[in-house]
Amino acid sequence: MPTPADFLEATKYFGIATLTLAGITLLAFALGWGIRFRLVGITSFMGVLTGGMLGLSFEPFTPSVVPGSVPYKTVYDSGAAQIVIKVSETITPNELEATLQQAASNLLKPSRLGGMGVAPTIRARTIVHEPGRVSNLVYLGQVQPIRESGAETTLNIEIFESAFDTLAQSSPSLTDHNS
């Protein structure tokens, strides 16, 4: 899979090709060639491709992996300030913290929109199936970026210990999560 550095390198070559075509287009206008207007279209399209390649060089394509994290699935993303991920009901608090760090690294981008003063929030939840075909959502934790300058960490991670108590009570087959 191409990396951002590969796209940046390709942008250089696309830029050179665009400038070369622009020179040929100017020459075509100066000499009155019949294909001069076609060259304008080709040069414009090359400019669009060059801009696209430059844009692709800014965003990494490979998701980050935090040691100790477990797989998660994004179940809701408003595109703005609300994201919900689903994790296994057997997750431990330490695994949840690493998973929230990984989700923040992969999902919280500077391009994410949010209202003034509203920090994007990633909430982790699981589903607990109770007798009688009843399923309950249990929110286990959340992470928000810290936007204050001078902060020691860039993320505010909250683990809801009471939610792990709920998991332990509803699933007696699971091991103790408060270790």
Keywords:
5 strands, five-stranded mixed sheet
Topology, pairings included?
Elements: H1 4-31, H2 36-56, E1 73-77, E2 82-86, H3 93-107, E3 121-130, E4 134-145, E5 155-159, H4 161-170
Parallel strand pairs: 2-3
Antiparallel strand pairs: 1-2, 3-4, 4-5
Helix pairs in contact: 1-2
Structure write-up:
Helix content is 41%, strand content 21%. A hairpin with a 4-residue loop joins strand 1 and strand 2. The longest helix is centred in the N-terminal third of the chain and has 28 residues. It has a five-stranded mixed beta sheet. The C terminus is likely disordered. Helix 1 packs antiparallel against helix 2. It folds into two domains: 53 residues; 98 residues, no CATH class. The radius of gyration is 25 Å and the shape is elongated. By secondary structure, it is α+β, with helices and mostly antiparallel strands.
Structural class: alpha+beta
Which assembly state applies to the chains in this document?
Answer: single chain
Mean pLDDT, as a whole number? 86
CA radius of gyration is 25 Å
Largest sheet: 5 strands, mixed
Order of helices and strands: HHEEHEEEH
Strand content: 15-25%
Report the end-to-end length measured between terminal Cα atoms: 40 Å
What fraction, in percent, of the residue positions are helical?
40-55%
Strand tally, please? 5
